[in-house]
Hints:
The structure holds 2 protein chains of 2 kinds. By secondary structure, chain A is mostly helical. Chain A contains 12 helices and 2 strands, in the order ααααβαααααβααα. Chain A has helices spanning 2-27, 35-52, 57-76, 84-104, 122-125, 127-150, 152-162, 164-169, 174-200, 210-223, 228-244, 252-273; strands at 115-116, 202-203. The termini of chain A are far apart. Chain B is mainly α. Chain B has 11 helices and 2 strands; from the N terminus they run ααααββααααααα. In chain B, α1 packs parallel to α5, α1 (2-32) packs across α10 and α10 packs across α11 (264-278). Chain B has helices at 2-32, 39-56, 61-89, 94-116, 140-162, 164-174, 176-181, 186-211, 218-233, 238-259, 264-278, and strands at 130-133, 136-139.
Amino acid sequence: xxxxxxxxxxxxxxxxVALAANLVIGYTGxxxxxxxxxxxxxAYVTATLNILLGVNFYLALLIGSIIxxxxxxxxxxxxxxxxxxxxxxxxLGINFVFFDFFHNLAPRVEGSEGLYGLQLPDLLASSAPRFxxxxxxxxxxxxLCQAIVTSPLGRALRATRDRPDALAALGxxxxxxxxxxxxxxxxxxGLAGGLYAATLFYIDPTLFTLDASILVLVYIGVGGLxxxxxxxxxxxxxxxxxxxLRFLGLPSQFxxxxxxxxxxxxxxxxxxxxxxxxxxxxxxxx
Amino acid sequence: xxxxxxxxxxxxxxxxYYALIAVGxxxxxxxxxxxxxxxxxxxxxxxxxxxxxxxxxxxxxxASAVVGVFCAVVAGLAIDKIVYGPVxxxxxxxxxxxxxxxxxxxxxxAGFLAWSKGVVSVARTGMLDTFIVGGVAxxxxxxxxxxxxxxxxxxxxxxxxxxxxxxxxxGLTDNAYxxxxxGVNVRRTRYAIFLIASALxxxxxxxxxxxxxxxxSIGFKMLFIGVVAVILGGVRxxxxxxxxxxxxxxxxxxxxxxxxxxxxxxTIFLIMIVLIIIRPQGILG
Lengths: 286, 285
């Protein structure tokens, strides 16, 4: 039961990450391959404030999200000049850079590679209330994202993806929407990062490598781009599938690589047979 | 002054690897518009094949190197045939190919992770020879790299500018549609491009495996570096652009590695950002 609640909490956390990624990748068409960097910033800022400076967890979470949003905006600005593949690759570069940052500069608890010892409030301290809280936050995020994409702003975002020239002709700067949604998504991912730290109790730089960014890509790719339902569905299905791999009885050192190979295969098969994923509304046909 | 020259010599050595990766990537991207993420994987396959033959099974260096390059060629052609072909036939755009390529890279990397558990391994025993001229230590191996790179680029130049396939490749770079209209056999040219690009990446893989060793994530890292080198040099002139880009990047990373050794990817990324801001079309673009 304890383990099921833990899995459920993880699903909720990753759902928030996937929702944010879908806003930028699916709706706005900005190919981000470095979402794990923002997840890491959120997790590290929250954990550092809480563990080393003794800040209340909720406040730390809020500050973590805001700082991540600011970091997101700052890292996006130089990338706005490039498009397409180069943009995707540059975001991958952001991921490498932040890994360097976490690895070389991030604070750590004496005698370990990372941070632990969070002072969690009652709502997050034990597994059952933590599950309820993160699920509630994830549902709130899903509703918020759904509200955004069905609003005029959502239409402007899709126009930024599909017809940036038309948007510019109407006197609206596509870049403004790109910066706006990127910042918002980074903030959301930062929030998820703080909750991720609360779920795992321990964070270290290896959690925020390229692998995590690709995981996000697989989640929203399977669920479907430009679909809130897709983000939720992709995360639930794949994490459940991943957990079911335990019953195969593979030796533990093969579980990670096996999972990675399955995800790689999924990406290829999706691109060949069903580019819009399960319930997506957008695919990569140019 | 001596230190400056020392770092410069290290940088030129690095530039050789970067150039071999970058030129193949530029060849594929410039002609077929395929963003070949798995190019780094092809590089890595050659390195691992060379490592296991030479170091683990004790096969002769040259035989292992040839087999390594051969494995790279087979892998490159197979990825094009099995992964890119079906995606394109079913109407996938270039971004779909990009994601599928990422998938292929992940699968191979997973294989090496399962096999080697991330161990960094050098495919040789003992130190490499160095000799000292005027206080600067040169590695004999850097001259080997240089000879290979010079030979590879010389052959590439002849291929691109003296053969009919080369003419077709250059035609595809300028205007793919027009090239097909005037009767360029795109299928055959595509085959030649993947073969040659993969062989060059394989050569780099063998050399790196012998020199600094391998780890499963090196494929992505090398690809990233190669692409930055291509962006640095510009895609208009494949050969000169990659040589210039790779040399600049090699020297810059060597200096940065000397000054701030812990910040390797940060430096590469920073160089790319600065370049994109001041000169988005590349140094020669």
